[in-house]
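Worked example

This section walks through a single chain of length 329. The input is the sequence exactly as stored; nothing has been trimmed or padded.
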Amino acid sequence: MKDKTVVLALLTTLLLAFGAAAAKTFITIGSGGYTGTYYPTAVGIAEIINSNLKDIRANAVSTGGSVFNTGAIQTGDQQMAMTQNDIAYYAFNGKVILKFLGKPAYKLRGVATIYPETVHILARKDANITSVSDFKGKKVYVGDVGSGAEQNAKQILEAYKMTFADLGQAVRGRPKTAVQLLQDGRIDALFYTLGVGSSAIVQASENADIVFVPLEAAKISFLKKRYPFYASYSIPAGSYRGQGSAVQTVAVKATLVASADLSADVVYRVANLIFGSKLAQFKSIKPVIAENFSVKSALDGMPIPLHPGAAKFFKEKGIPIPNVAKPID
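Given that input, the structure is written out below as tokens.
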């Protein structure tokens, strides 16, 4: 009898432990390269969740970026992710990006837009590049395969009536590698879309003799008209070593997205945590968040339907829920 009692007690303990584990919601948050802003943002969100919501466990993972993340939301490999708002739009509507043509990421839902992501265009000073038009025949990093930066590079070259084929070599790979290639003189220039002040661009400016390549006003107008996600943006003078004047370029919005498979309750609680009671901690993750994020503007540029949990949070805050844009033809 005693043995049976011990066995039953052990079984009960195991079942309770199993039940507790089964009750947890596990969230994988996709980000980007280690040197960008997505990764520390995702890590910071995961830390806030894990410290405050005992039945939700979050884990941030480094990935190839926006296109990869939106695809991983659709396949169920990620439950939340950081992505550019333009890539979220293309993915949800099955437009523009080859990976999603005819195969939209219909599980993709918006949570909030976080901060502007600036298209940085850098060149080695000895490459004699003053405009994107000078990229013809040059070795240029155009973003990781499947990344948002790759699409930005393609679209900006389009504004100059160029394609990747006009470059001497379109170099791909992880952004961290690209910065090292620029420093070593093995590429002439690079496109990199991320928040101002990110460590990768700081590293490049401190370890190589570089110039920031501006976009002409007419090219910015073309991009804004053709691709409605773009906004004019000026990188403030002195943002990086050796940058003596403001640099005119374009920006998209870094956006937190979630899977439609996540329950409304879970997403509501996460939103209420990071944008509510722990807002100060969320904004302390990176200066670009502190300088740009506010609950009032958190739906500006939201291109896809909101997750019901996020919609509940913003409705409680009195923020109008936007109508999503129509697909690009």
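What to look for: Residues 2-116+253-316 form a domain with the D-Maltodextrin-Binding Protein; domain 2 fold (CATH 3.40.190.10).
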